[in-house]
Design brief:
The protein is built from 9 helices and 17 strands. It has about 325 residues and is of the alpha+beta class. The protein has one domain. Strands 5, 6, 7, 8, 9, 10, 11 and 17 form an 8-stranded mixed beta sheet that branches. Strands 1, 4, 12, 13 and 14 form a 5-stranded mixed beta sheet that branches. A two-stranded antiparallel sheet has the order 2-3. The radius of gyration is 25 Å and the shape is globular. The termini are far apart. About 30% of the residues are buried. The model has no long low-confidence stretch (mean pLDDT about 85).
């Protein structure tokens, strides 16, 4: 009997050109306004090379006083200048292959395996995008504690369950202290990312206010005007004796730069007729090239492979802050 093959199901060009069903643009991270994506970043992601240089202009130094005007022709004022800084971002070159045998498609009831793979691959990439974003924020936290005196972090957590109180759990005072590690730039905050255990505490505190989504349904959680993004990828560490400490991340507007490149063969079908002892196996390969870079930082080290792994992104050694603390739209709160 004839077997329906992947080539019969998917037109590669059409599949590649279709908008993703679940893309980063549809995540709460993106919709909260903390992600900056533009044609420049997309172009840098597509361009040749393993790294991207992200230049920025430093602000006019506010500590330098203006000139005092006078009417003396011999008094010549000296002009000041602004300087440019640079952030170095390492691109992520990623791929995922999903295979299905012809025999399994013939035997299995319900939709063909590849139909299911096709419907879920966008969700897979969206989740990987979020994991890389959170891993990067974890690495920046580690770098901040190791190299910058922890000036982006407010911790009220204790090491044992017995010592925990309402003051060591998520509370408004601790949140406010974390916000103002940014100084007068705190007004740029747009979202807070929390572990589900912290969200549970926020709900118990009756702190969550739900606002309407695009359909008018009260489904978007907010806290003190910030969108709340719940993801269990946020850092959880065991106390030295008992209990756990949870790290919540404060995100300001434009905290993360995002560029989506165009791989040479973004979607590809591979067929191995001899595999399965001749039954045949087909594989759908999906490839991504991303820039996902926190503003105000540069990457320092060289990854073990061409791109950083999640474990590498979460380490202090990868990151170095290149702007003043108040110009970094990120902050951290550690609670029980």
């Amino acid at each position: 009997m004839a077997t329906v093959q992947l080539a019969d199901i998917i037109d590669v060009k059409v599949f590649q050109d279709l908008p993703a069903v679940n893309s980063p643009e549809k995540t709460a991270f993106y919709q909260s306004g903390i992600i900056t994506r533009n044609s420049l970043l997309d172009g840098l992601a597509t361009a040749a090379g393993k790294t991207a240089e992200l230049p920025f202009w430093n602000d006019i130094d506010p500590t330098v006083a203006p000139n005092l005007s006078n009417d003396n022709p011999a008094s010549i004022a000296a002009a000041s200048k602004i300087t440019q800084g640079e952030q170095i971002s390492r691109k992520s070159f990623l791929n995922k292959g999903m295979s299905a045998t012809d025999l399994a498609s013939e035997i299995a009831m319900g939709p063909l395996a590849m139909e299911h793979i096709k419907s879920r691959i966008d969700t897979y990439w969206m989740r990987q995008w979020q994991r890389r974003l959170i891993a990067s924020t974890n690495g920046i936290l580690a770098d901040n504690i190791a190299n910058d005196g922890g000036d982006m972090v407010k911790s009220v957590a204790v090491e044992s369950i017995a010592a925990q109180t309402s003051a060591t759990k998520f509370n408004r005072d601790a949140f406010t202290d974390a916000v103002y590690t940014m100084g007068d730039a705190a007004t740029t905050l747009r979202a807070i990312g929390v572990h589900s255990a912290v969200m549970s505490q926020m709900v118990k505190n009756d702190d969550i206010v739900y606002i309407p989504d695009s359909e008018g349904k009260l489904t978007i959680p907010t806290y003190m005007g910030l969108r709340v993004i719940v993801d269990d990828g946020h850092t959880v560490t065991a106390g030295s004796t008992s209990g756990f400490k949870y790290t919540s991340v404060l995100f300001g507007e434009g905290a993360i730069g995002y560029g989506d490149g165009v791989p040479l063969n973004g979607v590809e079908i591979e067929r191995e007729a001899a595999q399965g002892n001749g039954a045949g196996i087909e594989t759908l390969w999906s490839r991504k090239t991303w820039i996902l870079h926190p503003f105000g930082f540069q990457t320092l080290t060289t990854p073990a492979a061409v791109s950083f792994s999640l474990a590498e992104l979460a380490t202090a050694a990868v990151w170095d802050r290149v702007v003043a603390r108040k110009n970094v739209p990120l902050g951290y709160l550690v609670t029980n």
